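User: Some background: our group keeps a shared notebook of sequences we're curious about, and every so often someone picks one and asks for a predicted structure to add to the entry. Today it's my turn. The entry only has the sequence so far, pasted here. Could you supply the structure so I can complete it?
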Amino acid sequence: MNFKISKNRFLEALQITAKAISPNSPLPALSGIMIQAKDSQLILTGSDSDISIRTVLSNENDQDLGLAIMEEGDIVIDYRYLLEIVRKIDSSEINVEIIDGTFTRFSAGTIEFKINGIRPEDYPNVDFSEPENSFSIKSSEFAQMIEETAFAANAKDTRLVLTGVNFKSDGTNLICTATDSYRLAKKTVPMVCNPFNVTILAKSLNNARSVFNDPESEIKISLNDKKVQFSCGNTIMQTKILDGVFPDTDRLIPAEFNYSLTINRRALIAAVDCSSFIRTDNLMVVRMQINSKEDITISNKSQEIGEYHQELIGEQYEGEPLDISFSGNYVVEAARTLSTDNVVIKFTGDMKPFILQNDGGDDTILQLVLPVRTYN
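Assistant: Of course. Here's the predicted structure to add to the notebook entry:
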């Protein structure tokens, strides 16, 4: 293998491909990026067996690439060394050449690195065939969906299916739902496509969000019951579908609400977050007492640390006096995903789940939080 390429374009492609690699991979070959030079193209592949990324570089698709393949071939190089070498070469162009077995030379001008690679035969075969069921979505809309839901997935793998976001289509709407059993985030987007129901690891979705970050581009999403594939431009990213049945979360959402509070979103976040250091058993439990829109108290106390009180004024309140406690972190994270100046919080009772939504009747996004039992 022997090729020349623009240093900056090569580095950009390597950085994208490296997002699929785990630094603690049990398989040595998966700590590397597979570089294949063939058919006037340079193909870069990275994988941790759960997430895989392939980037294809060619002069046809990028006039500034400057790719010249003198000899076809392939090699696997540890991604940490590969990125460091390409970063440190101060040149507009870089030459990569296998000189003996897996011994590979990276050179430009007076700079030369020689490094041991890994045999390409040791790299697992990654199937990038495209699933049949597919739809397209704007990158900015996809990023917003992930931002509004993925945070609510379970960070622990005690129940694997809850570490993901459920994507479900009824043919006319795409519904994304995440829950860790104590809160729920749900986003609905009009989308005409074939019905499906899959759950995708939240970590993979956040990865896809960072890989496909051009807000003006469109992402093609293809899926089946085994994998989901994201593609845009010269890059493909795919990940496994999580096993297990995602719970029926619709039954958690109350059908009726007896109390409704409209309040400034930033004021709510600031008041709850203000006491974030006051914790009991590492949990920030915040108490909200509402008598009217002019009489709202946010409080937090810990026997070991102390206590906090703040008075708030709402825009509107409907219902009887209410006294409810909840995880402050959950409410802050939920409120931050909303976009209107005011948010509407709807309650069913002191120990019933409550929801947060945008003001103005936007029901495409819903954040649900379970209360915490306290003995005040």
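Suggested note for the entry: The chain has three domains: 2-122, 133-248, 253-369. Residues 255 and 348 are 9 Å apart (CA to CA).
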